[in-house]
Amino acid sequence: MEELTTFLSTWLDPQVVGAVVMTWGGRLLAALVIFIVGRLIARALTRLFSITVARVGLDHTVARFLGNFIYMVLLVFVLLTALSTLGVNTTNFIAIIGAAGIAIGLALKDSLSNFSSGVMLLFFRPFKVGDQIDAAGTGGIVESVGIFNVVLKTPDNRVVNVPNSLIYGGTITNYNAETTRRIDLAIGIGYDADIAKSKSVIEAVIAAESRIARMPAPEVAVQDILVNAVTLAVRVWVSTADYGLVRSDLLERIKRALDKYELSIPAAHRTPPAPVPLPVSK
């Protein structure tokens, strides 16, 4: 009973109570101020980040995800600072958070790689929705650019989902990056055909095609001399949207024009194999 009385008299002493209240009250107030002000600063920084990425043109979904992620990281930092103000040892918390982050990173290594590649694709924009590209061994029209994959539609109407890491880590060919493209054709004529006349016939076909640009000027020149033919190089510039149709029409019209003037494209000739003698029965 005497010990209890001594304990109560000690802790109920006004000076002791006042010191405890001043110490812990000050710490609680400081921690609360740090948490409230820190959260406001985290929101302001997140809002500034969102405005910045919107001006850059980053995808809205990715910008929102990154904004939420940054806000959570800042909020954890503010919370740890507030706990440290209260005198709580935050070393163990930091170690636990670090270990959990490493474990999650290893478990989601491929997904994080695709995510980071998707962010880079959306930031640098090597292509956009509607472009025709070749990437990761697949060619097609870009249907969508997501956080983890790019959706392509092939010419035969197949939908292909390609991981972002494969696209960003490889070579990307964008056929719509420029407004014009050059058509390169190799037209073969026989050795007996007149080269000057053949060039004149092809140039007339080119001049009659209104979709071919006049600048840069079209080119028709001897490209190679092969075993069975002389190859003429035909180079013309067209609008990117007209590339496929103009190329097909040009091949057809050049073939018809050469046939008309008996400047036929030589066919490959193969020497038939010698007949195998049948075994003679004895």
Can you walk me through this structure?
About 50% of the residues lie in helices and about 20% in strands. With about 280 residues, the protein is an alpha+beta fold. The protein folds into three domains: about 15-105, Helix Hairpins (Orthogonal Bundle); about 125-175, Roll (SH3 type barrels), CATH 2.30.30; about 180-260, Alpha-Beta Plaits, CATH 3.30.70.100. Strands 4-3-2-1-5 form a five-stranded antiparallel beta sheet. The longest helix is centred in the first third of the chain and has 43 residues, at about 15-55. The model has no long low-confidence stretch (mean pLDDT about 80).
What are the key terms here?
282 residues, alpha+beta, Helix Hairpins, SH3 type barrels, Alpha-Beta Plaits, 3 domains, 5-stranded antiparallel beta sheet, 3-stranded antiparallel beta sheet, 8 helices, rod-shaped
In short:
The chain is α+β, with helices and mostly antiparallel strands and 282 residues long. It has helices at 2-11, 14-56, 60-85, 91-107, 109-124, 164-168, 195-207, 243-260, and strands spanning 132-135, 138-145, 149-153, 159-163, 172-174, 180-189, 219-225, 230-239. It folds into 3 domains: 14-107, Helix Hairpins; 126-174, SH3 type barrels, CATH 2.30.30.60; 180-260, Alpha-Beta Plaits, CATH 3.30.70.100.
